[in-house]
Amino acid sequence: MELKRRDFLKIVGGSALIGGSAISALVEEAGIAHASPHEEHGHSAEEDHGHGHIEEASGIRWAMVVDMRKCSEQEGCRDCINACHYVHNVPNFPDPKEEVKWIWKDEYHHVFTDISTLDPYVPEHIKRHPFLVLCNHCDNPPCVRVCPTKATFKRPDGIVAMDYHRCIGCRFCMAACPYGSRSFNWRDPRLGLKGRELNYEFPTRMRGVVEKCNFCVERLAQGKIPACVEACKHGALTFGNLADPNSEVRALLRENYALRRKPQLGTKPSVFYIIA
Amino acid sequence: MIEKALQGSSRYWTWIGFLLVLIGAGFISYLYQLKTGLGITGMSRDVSWGVYIAQFTYLVGVAAGAVMLVIPELLHGYHPYRRVVVFGEFLAIAAVTMCLLFIVVDIGQPARLFNVLLHPTPNSILFWDMIVLNGYLLINIIVGYNTLLCDKKGIPVPKWVKFFAYVSIPWAFSIHTVTAFLYSGLPGRHAWLTAIMAPRFLASAFASGPALLILLLLIVRKVSKYDPGEKVLQSIAKTICYAMIANLFFVGLEFFTAFYSNIPSHMHGLEYLFFGLHGHDQLVPWMQTAGVLGFLGVFILLIPPLRRRIGFLALACAAIIASTWTDKGVGLVIGGFVPNPFEKITEYHPTFPEITIAIGIWAVGFLILTVLYKVAISVREQELN
Ligand code: SF4
Ligand code: SF4
């Protein structure tokens, strides 16, 4: 890995003299963050695609690292999904058209659509194992940009949250989210909660509004970590402050090569995937 | 003036009754939707907008099309349009009203609609769309009604009304540009992420709006003593022809960019709509027919001896309406959602109640149109005496 990367940089290093920022943008897109051959050019690309100016508001930038090396060992495990969907009273509608989901699993080539053209040569175990997906709590969230009521908004700590009482159900945010992270309550969500144990500390929604993962804002406020992270017995999920260089998430990202979904769109996701 | 709408032949009342039945059916379906939720529609997590938003988009175009009469009349002093412009403006009023209704039935919590005003959000294009659409409705009511009132009294149109007529020109462009921005600014929706979305919308609007107007004027000529005149019809027909050629050209540009660049995500939307993608091809017959009809319409309008025959003119207009409606009222919205962000294909089939609601709204539009046209015709007939 290391060697290949150095080779790659040697090649682009030469051409960077001509089109520095474009090349470093490419480097960034290839997922090789913080490795631009020319610092002064690399900087602008980082602002476009990386986490550039996030911290100043609160000193906190919540993020999650999904370690697929650990997750994919647990075939069929749904601990995190079950925990989240219980804690947030996420209704269960089996018909995929009406489905509501906050965190779920999907295959590699559906999750990383932009690089799935490499498919034939991707190692079998990566192709086979489902990836966890959830709202990316983007730094530059298109869902917030389009919402006509500010029902979807970004908090100073980076969490993209929702006010279910303000949402008018126009579903503009669903068209805008490039990750399919949002669900709409096509029917009364209570119908999908029948016969299930409810969590009375978190409200159920009403029909006609959009919902999605909220990075457990309600738990963070009580000093707890997100329910999915807590539920994962195998340490595959790490949650923490991206703005803090000493945080666990930063350590993981420093030591491992991580991907984010569709970085070329400039949304700057805050969910990272350590692939291998 | 409005009282004229309350006097009419039995044919008139049969038509009104027919529309009321459709409206009633739509209304009952809407009550069902209000009670049960948008789950009664064919929309889904993946295709989260459907018939409603598609009709909305198409009708914004019809509304904007009225400006194709205002411009020659006002900016170029083309007098033959003087008596006809009001029919374009009344068509715009009906179309914008339908647009607003389609938005209302599409949202999940209609009771909260005013949140858009209570929490104005200028970074949302929907906010601006609401402003330009309501503004356009108001402008057309002001200009249309006052022009007609002056005609009835036989006095010249006052300056302030003229002022609003001038304002309506850029405003018409704005409604369709802003509506295009609803789509063309979204990352990851490749079929929509195109800089020529607004020009495409405008070209198709300037074809479909006037085409509908010609058909309506042909009906007006049949059922009343008022005749807009051959010259007017032919002039509008030429406008439609130019606009439709531009529209087809723009669609061709989309094909070139997608297929010459060969970028899969850019090709998928068009592939799904026009040729089928991974065996999913339910919209292919629609879109291909739309293409053929578009060329047919242009062909007829391009050849003067054909265009002058009323039967052919009507055929060309109908073909262009069908073509542009399929393009925007069916293909555009669905093409943006298929494939979904996971590159999966979920198809969309509108349900019976959903279609009933849509037809009900179209009926509301035609009811408004009928009443307004009835009034306009009565004034025009009075001028003849
Ligand atoms: S993943 Fe989607 S819903 Fe979540 S913040 Fe990004 S754009 Fe918004
Ligand atoms: S559905 Fe709700 S959250 Fe989404 S854009 Fe509309 S109002 Fe905002």
UniProtKB/TrEMBL annotation, chain A:
Q: Does the keyword Metal-binding apply?
A: yes
- State one Pfam family annotation: Fer4_11
Recorded GO molecular functions are:
4 iron, 4 sulfur cluster binding; metal ion binding
Q: Which domain of life is it from?
A: Bacteria
The family database entries (InterPro entries) matched by this protein are listed as:
4Fe4S_Fe-S-bd, 4Fe4S_Fe_S_CS, DsrO-like, ET_IronSulfur_Cluster-Binding, TAT_signal
Give start and end of each 4Fe-4S ferredoxin-type domain: 158-187
**Gene3D superfamilies named in the record:** 3.30.70.20
**Does the record bear Ligase in its keywords?**
no
Q: Which UniProt keywords apply?
A: 4Fe-4S, Iron, Iron-sulfur, Metal-binding
NCBIfam families cross-referenced by the UniProt entry = DsrO
Protein name, UniProt field: Sulfite reduction-associated complex DsrMKJOP iron-sulfur protein DsrO (HmeA)
Please give the organism.
Answer: Dissulfuribacter thermophilus
From TrEMBL, chain B:
Recorded hits in Pfam families, A to Z, give: NrfD (PF03916)
Which keywords has UniProt assigned to this entry?
Cell membrane, Membrane, Transmembrane, Transmembrane helix
TM stretches of this protein: 12-32, 52-72, 84-105, 125-148, 160-181, 201-220, 240-263, 283-303, 310-335, 355-376
Any one GO cellular component localisation term in the record: plasma membrane
What the record says about family reads: Belongs to the NrfD family.
- Taxonomic classification: Bacteria, Pseudomonadati, Thermodesulfobacteriota, Dissulfuribacteria, Dissulfuribacterales
Which InterPro entries has this protein been placed in?
A: DsrP-like (IPR054823), NrfD-like (IPR005614)
Q: Where in the cell is it found?
A: Cell membrane
Please report the name of this protein according to its UniProt entry. Answer: Sulfite reduction-associated complex DsrMKJOP protein DsrP (HmeB)
Q: What's the chief localization of this chain?
A: membrane
